[in-house]
């Protein structure tokens, strides 16, 4: 075990029932220290790092993260979440070892497991080397005693104790327990670590005849094979699409406060209600809340379908204001028309077409017209106390009968479509340079998130190529050899030409002497 953290780590060790005991169950490992331990053959158990550990005035030992509750450095039980875990089943008797790094119980510090001298097709490094505390959603955070620093990130199961997050009850099978939006944060940043109970088998490694180095806080150049050396947490997180509510595969310019940081999207594009995977996400535009039923970001025309939340279940609303957009970010598509809803209308001698029932100003008479009729003065139109304008799909009004509250509800729930804009030219240039689109969370200015650092426009070309120093040296040597060959060829050609020139002059002189002067 190696501690490369800038602080002390207290490794904790738990042997599973029936496994031979480990030489120790816990100890202190200061910054830069290494401890070699000999595990018994066929040992099964888990190892983790405890942080921020102290002794109180009575000598009771405890840790802020990874505490095992023994009251001393040696553990007598498992770790308290959140804690990054290394899990081992040593084969013994020639059988392969099976191991993984798990974030199912949450995360507290980076950990890397590297096999030494082992064999096998899946004998690979594994771990989580990214600082997940820096991107941990607020509701999952564990903070220091002063509350100024995030020192751990709970799993969704540990934070909410809900069956869908803990894979219990009706969700106790691989078919019913699916990755949540929270576990996606862990998986996107640390693709080789287990992120939830039924994660895929790529998170497990197997080795035969191996020793293992477990490193806490591995150095920046000690990376997993699946991560580029320059990848940082923000770039790794933002380049992955995310799920929100029952919508999947959502990318820039959208973000969700508890799932995806604002740096991955733009101001005005925050999605909420993401944790409920059976309902639609919401978005707020000009202080109005909308249901989002569709997002299309695959075409050149970026559109989404939205519907006012206050009119979702009924055309009767207490929020009697017109629907408006932030026109710097959103615009109506041509297939949208306006529906005007009138409320609190006085009774008429004749029945009112297009009516529906809503109580307002002590009357329950309401009716609707499309935007073409709303702009003209129609004789016999009832007097109403208020009206609001709501966009709908163009064909929605044509299928509405003269008197049907249910049809009004249906058309309002279908909503309308808008086009959204978020510096697409800059985003395309950024993606062409192998970056991912994002923004400055303070100024909302566009940023191209690159492997090593953000850029205002595009990523440096070095991040889009595979050239290394060996390649550059090879190119330089090849160019030198080619240049030397060309120079040698020119010299030989010139030398040969001079020799041939002298020979020709001697032959001409002999010819003239033999035939004499020529008459003109």
TrEMBL record:
<feature type="domain" description="Wall-associated receptor kinase C-terminal">
    <location>
        <begin position="370"/>
        <end position="452"/>
    </location>
</feature>
<keyword id="KW-0808">Transferase</keyword>
<keyword id="KW-0964">Secreted</keyword>
<keyword id="KW-0418">Kinase</keyword>
<feature type="transmembrane region" description="Helical">
    <location>
        <begin position="473"/>
        <end position="493"/>
    </location>
</feature>
<dbReference type="GO" id="GO:0030247">
    <property type="term" value="F:polysaccharide binding"/>
</dbReference>
<dbReference type="InterPro" id="IPR001938">
    <property type="entry name" value="Thaumatin"/>
</dbReference>
<keyword id="KW-1015">Disulfide bond</keyword>
<dbReference type="GO" id="GO:0016020">
    <property type="term" value="C:membrane"/>
</dbReference>
<keyword id="KW-0675">Receptor</keyword>
<keyword id="KW-1133">Transmembrane helix</keyword>
<keyword id="KW-0472">Membrane</keyword>
<dbReference type="GO" id="GO:0004674">
    <property type="term" value="F:protein serine/threonine kinase activity"/>
</dbReference>
<dbReference type="InterPro" id="IPR032872">
    <property type="entry name" value="WAK_assoc_C"/>
</dbReference>
<dbReference type="InterPro" id="IPR017949">
    <property type="entry name" value="Thaumatin_CS"/>
</dbReference>
<protein>
    <submittedName>
        <fullName>Putative thaumatin, wall-associated receptor kinase</fullName>
    </submittedName>
</protein>
<dbReference type="InterPro" id="IPR037176">
    <property type="entry name" value="Osmotin/thaumatin-like_sf"/>
</dbReference>
<comment type="similarity">
    <text>Belongs to the thaumatin family.</text>
</comment>
<dbReference type="Pfam" id="PF14380">
    <property type="entry name" value="WAK_assoc"/>
</dbReference>
<keyword id="KW-0812">Transmembrane</keyword>
<dbReference type="Pfam" id="PF00314">
    <property type="entry name" value="Thaumatin"/>
</dbReference>
<dbReference type="GO" id="GO:0005576">
    <property type="term" value="C:extracellular region"/>
</dbReference>
<keyword id="KW-0325">Glycoprotein</keyword>
């Amino acid at each position: 075990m190696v501690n490369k953290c800038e602080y002390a780590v207290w490794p904790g060790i738990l042997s599973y029932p029936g496994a031979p005991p480990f030489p120790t169950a816990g100890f202190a490992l200061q910054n830069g220290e290494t401890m070699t331990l000999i595990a018994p053959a066929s040992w099964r158990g888990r190892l983790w790092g405890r942080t921020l550990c102290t002794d109180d005035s009575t000598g009771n030992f405890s840790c802020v993260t990874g505490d095992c509750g023994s009251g001393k450095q040696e553990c007598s039980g498992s770790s308290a979440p959140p804690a990054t875990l290394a899990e081992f089943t040593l084969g013994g008797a020639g059988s392969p070892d099976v191991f993984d790094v798990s974030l199912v119980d949450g995360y507290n510090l980076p950990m890397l497991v590297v096999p030494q001298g082992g064999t096998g097709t899946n004998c690979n490094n594994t771990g989580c080397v990214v600082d997940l505390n820096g991107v941990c959603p607020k509701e999952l955070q564990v903070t220091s005693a002063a509350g100024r620093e995030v020192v751990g990130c709970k799993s969704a199961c540990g934070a909410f104790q809900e069956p869908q997050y803990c894979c219990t009850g009706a969700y106790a099978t691989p078919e019913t327990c699916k990755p949540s939006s929270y576990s996606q944060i862990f998986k996107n940043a640390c693709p080789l670590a287990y992120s939830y109970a039924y994660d895929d088998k790529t998170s497990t490694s197997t080795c035969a005849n191996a020793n293992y180095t477990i490193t806490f806080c591995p150095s920046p150049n000690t990376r997993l094979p699946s991560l580029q050396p320059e990848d940082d947490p923000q770039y790794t997180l933002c380049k992955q699409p995310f799920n929100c509510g029952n919508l999947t595969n959502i990318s820039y310019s959208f973000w969700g406060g508890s799932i995806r940081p604002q740096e991955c999207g733009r101001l005005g594009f925050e999605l909420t209600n993401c944790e409920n995977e059976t309902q639609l996400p919401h978005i707020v535009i000009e202080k109005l809340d909308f249901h989002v039923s569709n997002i299309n970001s695959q075409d050149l025309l970026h559109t989404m379908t939205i519907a006012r939340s206050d009119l979702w279940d009924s055309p009767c609303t207490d929020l009697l204001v017109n629907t408006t957009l932030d026109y710097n970010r959103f615009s109506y598509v041509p297939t949208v028309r306006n529906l005007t809803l009138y409320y609190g209308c006085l009774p008429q001698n004749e029945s009112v077409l297009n009516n529906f029932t809503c109580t307002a100003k002590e009357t329950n008479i309401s009716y609707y017209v499309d935007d073409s009729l709303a702009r003209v003065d129609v004789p016999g139109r009832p007097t109403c106390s208020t009206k609001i304008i709501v966009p709908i799909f163009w064909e929605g009004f044509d299928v509405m009968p003269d008197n049907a509250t249910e049809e009004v509800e249906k058309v309002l729930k279908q909503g309308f479509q808008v086009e959204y804009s978020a510096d697409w030219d800059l985003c395309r240039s950024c993606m062409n340079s192998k970056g991912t689109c994002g923004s400055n969370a303070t100024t909302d200015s566009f940023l191209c998130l690159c492997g090593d650092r953000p850029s205002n426009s595009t990523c440096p070309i070095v991040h889009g190529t595979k050239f290394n120093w060996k390649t550059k040296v090879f190119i330089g040597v090849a160019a030198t050899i080619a240049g030397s060959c060309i120079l040698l060829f020119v010299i030989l050609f010139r030398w040969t030409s001079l020799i041939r020139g002298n020979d020709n002059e001697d032959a001409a002189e002999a010819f003239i002497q033999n035939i004499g002067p020529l008459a003109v």
